[in-house]
What we know:
Layout: H1 15-25, H2 32-42, H3 45-58, H4 70-83, E1 86-89, H5 97-100, E2 108-113, H6 115-119, E3 122-127, H7 133-148, E4 152-155, H8 161-168, E5 174-177, H9 191-199, E6 202-206, H10 219-229, E7 232-236, H11 243-253, E8 257-261, H12 271-278, E9 282-283, H13 287-298, H14 325-333, H15 342-349, H16 353-365, E10 369-372, E11 376-379
Parallel strand pairs: 3-4, 3-7, 4-5, 5-6, 7-8, 8-9
Antiparallel strand pairs: 1-2, 2-6, 10-11
Helix pairs in contact: 1-3, 1-4, 2-3, 2-16, 3-16, 7-8, 10-11, 14-16
Amino acid sequence: MSLRSAGRSGIALTEKQRIAWLRLIRSDNVGPATFRDLINNFGTAERALDMLPELSQRGGATRAIRIASRDEAERELEFARRFGARFVGIGEPDYPPALRQIDAAPPLLAMKGDGETATRPSIGIVGSRNASISGAKMASLIARDCGVAGYTITSGLARGIDTSAHRASLDSGTMAAMAGGLDQPYPPENVELLKDIWNGKGVAISEMPFGWEPRARDFPRRNRLIAGTSLGVVVIEAASRSGSLITARLAGEFGRLVFAVPGSPLDPRCHGTNGLLKNGGIVTTEPRDILEALAPLSKIDLFTEPRVEEPAYEESETFNAPPDERERMTIIDSLGPTPVEVDDIIRHTGLAANAVYLVLLELDIAGRLQRHPGGLVSITLAG
C-alpha cells in the first residue's frame, strides 16, 4: 500500500505575516475560531490587530484588551529558531492536512522535526497510561504495521499506550501532539523519547507558547490535535473516564473513524474501550481491521484549501459598517446563558448575517461570548 503525502502544497506566510499571526493568536480572547473570524472580517492579521481595541470596546469590555507586541512575537520566533523549531501556518505546506478541515483548527502550530511526516495520512493511537503488557504489545503491533503501510502514527507522548505506539513507529514516522510548549515535554521520563522522535522520522507539534507548562485543562486541547490530524483513532485500554475517550469523542465529531480493541470486562482499563464498541466503535483485533477500514478514506482528497488564508493582494479598504446601537442591542438581547445556533439568532432578530457575526465577534473579543461544541454560542457576564 502506498500513501501519498497529501499536504505538501500551500502558500507560505511572509515573515511579516507570521509575526502578525503570532501576535494575533497570542492576544487576549483570541482563540482559533476568533482568529478565523477576524481574518474573514478584516482580511489580514495586521488589520485585525488594529481593530481589536475598537471591537473590544464595542463589545462592552470593562478593561483594555492585552495585545501581544511585535517584540514578544519576535522573541518567540527567535526562541523557536534556536530550539530548532518553527511556526507553521494553516495554509502552509507542512501543516497537517486533515487538521485543516476541523472547525477552529489552530492557525499556527509550533513544529519540530520532519515536516513530511506531518503531511502524510495519520492514524491516532491512544490508551491507558498504566497499560498492561498485552495492551502495550497491541499498541506496538498496530503502530508498526500501520506505519509500514505508510501511515504516520500520532499519539500524545504519555506513558503506557502512547509510549509504545511512538517507539514502534520511530522508523516509519510518528507525530507527538503536546499539551505544553515544545520545550516543556510531559511526562519527564519521555524526554529521551521525544528527542528520538524529532531527531529521526518524527515530528512534534503544539499550539501552546514556548515555556508553557502543561496543566490539566491543556490535555483536552492536545487530544483535539490527535483526533484532528488523524483519519482514524485507535483506543487501547481506556477506563470509563479518561482522556482517551475524549479523543475518541472528538474523532467522531470530526467525522473520523473510531477503532477500539476489546478487553476483559473484569479489567477497569477496558471499560471505556468496551463501551465504545457498544456504541458503534469498530472492533479491532489486528492491524488489518484498521487498514481495510481506512483504505477508502486514504484515496479521498480530504485535503482541500485551508479555511484561514490571507489574500496575496492588497486588500480592499472597504469593510461592512458596524450595526447601529439598536441592532446591536437586539442581537445581544437575543442571547442568554443557554447555547444557541448562530442561524437561530439571525432568524430570531431578522438582521443581516454579517451584522450578527460582527456583534458576536465584538462580544468575543470583549470576553463576553462563550463558544460551545457544534458552533453554539451563549453570553457570559465575564468582561
